[in-house]
Amino acid sequence: MEKKNVKPASGKLGVMCVGLGAVATTFITGVLMVRKGLSKPVGSMTQYDKIRVGKGENQKYLPYKEIVPIADLNDIVFGAWDVFPENAYQSAVHCEVLKEKDIESVKDELVRIVPMKAAFDRNFAKRLDGSNVKDAATRWDMVEQLREDIRRFKAENNCERIVVLWAASTEIYVPVCEEVHGTLAALEKAMKADDREHVAPSMCYAYAALAEGAPFIMGAPNTTVDIPAMWEMAEKTKMPIAGKDFKTGQTLVKSGFAPIIGTRCLGLSGWFSTNILGNRDGLVLDEPANFHTKEVSKLSTLESILEPEKQPDLYTDYYHKVRINYYPPRNDNKEGWDNIDIFGWMGYPMQIKINFLCRDSILAAPLCLDLVLLSDLAARAGRYGIQRFLSFFLKSPMHDYTQGEVPVNHLFQQYVMLKNAIREMGGYEADETID
């Protein structure tokens, strides 16, 4: 085995969350409780999964930390930006995801996490109206203020490395504009010219993170890092980027169940998906312009798993519909219904119905942890640009569409990509054997 030149996970790792709502506070509270031995990191691949390395008599199954140097949970320091000034304790209480006894057990640490003023433009999330917002003259000024926040947080907390994680709301859909998003120079020019139509606040966060040598993770369906300009920035700064949209409830089911239909060579007539949720995310998505961003992300899953050009008899002209409905009584307890119309031998119809009553933030929190730790690992391993091996954790995987690349949405193919990236960074051979 040839060990790769991966830098050790020494010193403190700063995790700066954009957004200090339900997802971020559930993630942070869970990590703090695990550190105290008060809970278990259930759902986290980096904490529980084991990967086979070696073959034959040399094979063994090892946790990630025994293959590659992953940061220890005790070395993480949390920071955040948010449009609301509540500290992490107050926010966790108001979000009503976690029980009081869990939040109270780490209250002292949560109270100390006070959000910095957010880089925010209400035109991109009309349902939010917070007061903890930066006064930025231009998008470029927004970037400069965010860069200063990162530098100050890193220095004040004695962090050796920083990862920036977007755990905020979905912005309105920003179509890719070649004139603005096609090159880094064009994007920078637009930021300095204060182009508020084509430069979303999330793009300012991503640019600032990369400029300060921090990996950036897009946990919402925003087009933030899905543009050639940001890929160029990641190449220039030699930093990893990952996105987009945490794969939590319905899309997790879809990316795992659609392969059953495809592998079994059954036909698909239609797949109707609808959701109800009542948290801040649901409130924002109740705005049609913001929902469209989510819709584009969720609709992309099936098309790369059940491909009509490969099986025209089975997957031509099937109907795929996705709806999200804001329903306050459910708060963070999302419910997803899927009605799947399939056909089998001689074209005879059948139906599958799935009802997933999930907890959105409970499913998202371990994804946040894994994405943060693995993005930090990738940076120390010298991996930069789009991190395709992190597709396993994301609804709408990043890909270079300018080169005709098709994203991998098949959950089990994504898992092979994840395992092989870990193997390679640990100095082991890539392997596609199913185990």
UniProtKB/TrEMBL annotation:
Keywords annotated in UniProt: Membrane, Transmembrane, Transmembrane helix
Coiled coil: none
SUPFAM superfamilies in the record: Glyceraldehyde-3-phosphate dehydrogenase-like, C-terminal domain (SSF55347), NAD(P)-binding Rossmann-fold domains (SSF51735)
A molecular function (GO) term: inositol-3-phosphate synthase activity
Domain of life: Bacteria
A biological process term (GO) from this entry: phospholipid biosynthetic process
Family per similarity comment: Belongs to the myo-inositol 1-phosphate synthase family.
Protein name, entry field: Inositol-3-phosphate synthase
Organism: Phocaeicola barnesiae
